Amino acid sequence: MALKALIFLTVSLHLSSAVTHSLQYFHTGATGINFPEFTAVGLVDGEQFVYYDSNIRKKIPKTEWIQKNVGEDYWDSETQSAQGNQAWFTVSLPKAMQRFNHTPGVHTLQVMYGCELDDDGTTRGYFQFGYDGEDFISLDLRTLTWITATPQALINKNKLDSTGAEAHHWKRYLESTCIEWLKKYVSYGRETLERKVRPEASVFHKHSPSPEVVCHATGFFPKAVLITWQKDGEDLIEDVKLTETLPNQDGSFQKRSILKVPAEELQKHKYTCVVQHSSLGMELEREVPKDGESGRGSDGGQIGVIIGVVVAVVAGVAAVVFWKKRNSGFKPVPPKPSSEGDSSSNNS
C-alpha cells in the first residue's frame, strides 16, 4: 500500500509540474479506400498544426500561431518536401503489398516519427514504419540498428544496417534538428500550447458484451491525464482498461477508462472514477451510480467518444487511426536519397 501511495503521489506531482513538449508527424499512403492516396499530418503537443494531402498538393496551416509566424519560404519548402514524400509512397506501397503477397484492396503504409523535450532538457526520438496498421520496422536510436516486427522487413533491415547511413541521419535529425524546430514551434504557440483547460468527466454503465463501467474525461488540455478507479476508497488496478487519448475538434483531448465489474458488486460497493490533470487544483471524482439511480451518463455517453473520433478524421488526423499499435510519437524527416526503407523527408 505504501508503494502504491508513492507511485500515486509521483504521478500526481508529474501531472501538476512537469512539462513535456512533442513534435510528431504521420505520413500515410493508402489504397482501396475513400481517402487521399497520401497524407502528411504534423502535430505539436498532440495538436495538429500543418496538413498536406495528395488532393490539395500543398502544405497548409491548421493553427493560427503557425500561420502568423512563418512566411512563404516555409510553406514552399514544406510543400516541396511533402510532394517528394508523396512520390516515395506512390512507389513504396505497391512494393510492400507485393512483399506481403497482397492483392489490390484496402492497404496502408505509414511512417511515424518525432521527438519529445522535457522541461529538464531530457529528449527522446523515434522513427518507425507501419504496414496495414501493424508495426513493420523501427530504428533503435541507442544501438543505431533497425528492429523488424515481421519477416517481410528483413530485406529492409539488411539493406539499412549494411551502411548505417540512414540510422546516423535519423539520429542527427531526431536529436538535433527536430528538437530545434520543436522549440521554435513552442515559442510561436506558447499561449495556446501551454494553456490549461479543465476536463469534464462522466461515468456510465456499459452492459455488453460483459458488465462494465466507463469513465469518460473530455475537453482537457494539455494531453497528459491520469484516470484511476477506487472501490470503497481503495485504489483498483485489476480489470481496468485505458483507451488511447483522442483529439477533439477544438484542440482539446478525451480519454476513457473502462472497469470490468459484476453488476452485483456495483450494488454492494461504492465505485469511484478519479481524474487527475494539471489544470485541476484537486482531483476530480465521479461516483458510479447504482442501478436505478440517475448518473452523469449512460450508454449514450459513448456518443461523445464516437464524435471525437469522427472529428479527428475530418480534421486530417485520420492517419493516426490506421496505426493500431501506436507508440509514443511520430514526425516528418529531412529529405534523403531514395532507397528501399527510406521514406521522404522534411526539414522541420
Major sheet: 8 strands, antiparallel
Secondary structure: number of strands:
17
State the helicity in percent bands: 25-40%
The backbone outline, from C-alpha atoms, is globular
What's the rounded overall pLDDT mean? 82
For the terminal residues, how far apart are their CA atoms? Answer: 46 Å
Strand order of the largest sheet: 4-3-2-1-5-6-7-8
Structural class: alpha+beta
Run of helices and strands? HEEEEHHEEEEHHHEEEEEEEHEEH
Number of helices: 8
Summary tags:
348 residues; alpha+beta; eight-stranded antiparallel beta sheet; five-stranded antiparallel beta sheet; 17 strands; disordered N terminus
Account of the protein in words:
With 348 residues, this protein is an alpha+beta fold. The chain is built from eight helices and 17 strands. The strands form three sheets. An eight-stranded antiparallel beta sheet has the order 4-3-2-1-5-6-7-8, sandwiched between helices. Strands 9, 10, 13, 14 and 15 form a five-stranded antiparallel beta sheet that branches. Strands 12-11-16-17 form a four-stranded antiparallel beta sheet, covered by helices on one side. It starts with a helix and ends in a 26-residue tail after the last helix.
